[in-house]
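lol ok so funny story. i was supposed to be doing the assay writeup but got distracted and ended up predicting the structure for this chain instead. priorities right. anyway since i did it might as well share w the group, maybe its usefull for someone
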Amino acid sequence: MEIKEYIVISLGGSIVAPDQIDTIFLKSFTSLIKDYVARGFRFVIITGGGKTCRNYNNSLKQIVDPSMEDLDWLGIAATRLNAELVRICFGNLAYEKIILNPDLIIQTEKPILVGGGWKPGNSSDLAAVHIAKSIGAKKIINLSNIDYVYNKDPREYKDAIPIIKSSWVDFRNILPSDWNPGLNLPFDPIAAREAEANSFEVVIMNGKNIENLKNYLDNKDFIGTTVK
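and the output, tada:
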């Protein structure tokens, strides 16, 4: 079968396991991805740590005074736990090991690769950008628990405006300059810089809306923020 397109998905931990593992979402998500694999698409899915990461980091801070690197490794472990869960959900369609280093090109006929965090100082978003470079993909879908990115935090500002389309220059202006483990951001600012440098298209959308993800994959109108 002809390979139509490689697509990288940065799958937020906030939708894999918001409080507990969301089995309904995972069933719908894996079913959709399998349908598109059957049409010739290939996917790389990089999972985040989400609330699991933040719970572990916050708990550790109540016990000791951990270093930033300790917090990073703890968060990476959370992303890899989520990655193993997602990998197994795809059965034989997925490569048998999760991707630990996004700069290494995996030689496989499997249509789905799943990975988690990489190393301290790097988020799962950055891992997604690096693996997109490794496999030659040009599109990254960031699935989180928000419909759009806003020009400012809508939880604090009632006049926050949703961003439908943005240039990388404008988008990066609403992000901090640095990334720290456990931060709850629409996209890692370091990953944003690298995505811009590689002319990637990044789409940020609510992963819970499976039909909306389908619309994007079908090149139909969808709800979300496009940055390119």
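The radius of gyration is 17 Å. The chain has one domain: 5-227.
back to the writeup now i swear
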